[in-house]
Design goal:
Largest sheet: 5 strands, parallel
Number of helices: 12
Strand order of the largest sheet: 7-6-5-8-9
Distance between the termini: 16 Å
Shape: globular
Radius of gyration: 19 Å
Structural class: alpha/beta
Order of helices and strands: HEHEHEHEHEHEHEHEHHEHH
Length: 308
């Protein structure tokens, strides 16, 4: 039975109970995949993927995932469609959603995807905006759960720019009851309103990145210059020079701490090669788990809960 129309535009769009189901479902779907067992619940369903921002992992994980669920995926780049030639977001949403079953959009402004979803007849998934990256954090949290169990009460240290991934970690902490320590250079601090926080005390700001990482269960970061901010690159290289995740930082984290990064990574900038290629790094599991977490999400948005 189909579920009521819902979108996944921010992490806080779902409840803790819904995420508990999605993480359990991710494990089941991943086990099916690893056992070479066919699982085609989305046979004859179509995903349209709209890209305004470049992508490797988002396109591959959604396209491969939809095929593995028995459906099909269509790639649209705004440069090659009428969206890039002045067609309104609202008109595009009305047309695209009449010809597909689910839409994933990777764009710049959150307002764009919000407007698209408001006029869509089918579920819309945020594949990344300037403000949020909810699918990435779903995969990251599942990666922790897969190794260590519940994330409740744990501490995540975010080192670097308070960007869309950071914002989404902060939302996730409020939904799933864990803590986030954020350390950024001056001028790059978290903006609570932009992050969409509702103020439940799961976030603490640190000026010293080493103090933010002390005792943390997860130490994570991202590139210093995100897409759309390339003109600031030289300035950012100077500002973030003391915010690199290195072996010393990982040593003062919790004994079983893991390092995460959404990729692509710049070794020698936000993280050393010793850390990202070392034994505490789970970045390759994170990348693969985008595939399985998004399959669980697609299934849930289109057909609801399934027995396991």
């Amino acid at each position: 039975m189909s579920r009521k129309l819902a979108h996944f535009l921010q992490f806080k769009d779902f409840s803790q109970e819904e995420f508990d189901y999605l993480f359990a479902r991710t494990r089941w779907i991943k086990n099916q995949f690893k056992s070479y067992k066919q699982h085609w619940p989305l046979s004859d369903r179509t995903l349209v993927m709209i890209f305004e921002k470049a992508s490797t992992r988002t396109r591959l994980s959604f396209e491969a995932g939809m095929h593995q669920l028995g459906g099909s995926a269509i790639y649209l780049n705004t440069r090659d469609s009428q969206l890039g030639r002045g067609e309104s977001v609202e008109d595009a949403a009305k047309v695209i959603s009449r010809m597909s079953d689910v839409v994933m959009m990777r764009t710049f402004e959150q307002d764009t995807i919000e407007r698209f979803a408001a006029h869509s007849h089918v579920p819309v998934i945020n594949g990344l905006t300037n403000e949020y990256h909810p699918c990435q954090i779903m995969a990251d949290i599942y990666t922790w759960i897969e190794r260590h169990g519940s994330i409740q009460g744990r501490t995540v240290a975010w080192i670097g720019d308070s960007n869309n991934v950071c914002n989404t970690w902060l939302q996730a902490a409020e939904v799933l009851d864990f803590n986030v320590h954020v350390s950024t250079p001056p001028g790059y601090e978290v903006e609570p309103e932009r992050a969409g926080l509702y103020g439940t005390g799961h976030f603490e700001q640190f000026t010293d990145p080493m103090e933010a990482a002390r005792g943390a269960d997860i130490v994570t970061t991202d590139v210093w210059t995100s897409m759309g901010f390339e003109a600031e690159n030289a300035e950012r290289m100077r500002a973030f020079a003391d915010f690199q995740v290195d072996a010393e930082m990982m040593r003062i984290a919790a004994p079983d701490a893991v390092f995460m990064h959404c990729l692509p990574a710049h070794r020698g900038e936000e993280v050393t090669a010793e850390v990202i290629d070392g034994p505490q790094s789970v970045v390759w599991d994170e990348a693969e788990n985008r595939l399985h977490a998004q399959k669980a999400l697609l299934e849930y948005l289109l057909i609801g809960r399934c027995p396991m």
